[in-house]
Amino acid sequence: VIVNSTGEGAYGLDPEVAWNMGLNLTQKFRFNYREGTVSAAYYYTDFQNQVVTDIEDHHYVRFYNLNGRSFANSLQFQFDYELIHNLNLRLAYRWYDVKTTYNGTLKEKPLVAANRAFANVAYETRNHWKFDYTVQWVGTKRVPASYDNAEGLSPSFIQMNAQITTNINNN
């Protein structure tokens, strides 16, 4: 681990400073007597200073203050709808564009997937048992060069989760 200290903060690093702005639009609707919402959200963050964690050299992890540009764009769409009584569906997609300057070159931030998708089905019984099933797709991510390979992309993957929940009341 190498810390290139030029600032006056902790470990010689200056604090992070960023401007964040965004917009969220949400529309409620009714279809087949059921409630639903559709939303879109866009956020932009522009870093004036950032503590950069540089893993571009496989021999070291370097920490230093930003010397160049760094920004993040995020765009998300979401759809929520009650399919039948107590059976809810949520679908979402998120796009990230996150870039940071490493050693004078603006690059995609490593290990951050540009694309993600999400689907969730949730059901609750009359006696308050809750059943959730979620599928999430995570797209490829930039992986810096390592001992074994040149810089490349990680494979995308799908993750599935299921959960059953209830409250046990001792009253």
Write the layout of secondary structure elements.
Blueprint: E1 2-3, E2 17-31, E3 34-49, E4 51-54, E5 62-65, E6 70-84, E7 87-102, E8 105-108, E9 115-124, E10 130-138, E11 142-143, E12 152-153, E13 157-165
Parallel strand pairs: 1-5
Antiparallel strand pairs: 2-3, 3-6, 4-5, 6-7, 7-8, 7-9, 9-10, 10-13, 11-12
Overview of the structural elements:
The chain has 171 residues and is an all-beta fold. The protein has no helices and 13 strands. The chain has strands at 2-3, 17-31, 34-49, 51-54, 62-65, 70-84, 87-102, 105-108, 115-124, 130-138, 142-143, 152-153, 157-165. Strands 2, 3, 6, 7, 8, 9, 10 and 13 form an eight-stranded antiparallel sheet that branches. Strands 1-5-4 form a three-stranded mixed sheet, with no helix packed on it. Strands 11-12 form a two-stranded antiparallel ribbon.
Compose a concise summary of this entry.
By secondary structure, this protein is mainly beta. Helices cover 0% and strands 63% of the residues.
What is the number of helical segments per DSSP (H or I, 4+ residues)? 0
Query: Low-confidence stretches at least 5 residues in length (pLDDT < 50)?
Result: none
Radius of gyration: 22 Å
Annotation, overall tally of beta strands? 13
Largest sheet: 8 strands, antiparallel
Question: Strand-residue fraction?
Answer: over 45%
Morphology = elongated
Give the proportion of residues in helices.
under 10%
Q: Any descriptors?
A:
171 residues; mainly beta; 13 strands; single chain; 8-stranded antiparallel beta sheet; elongated
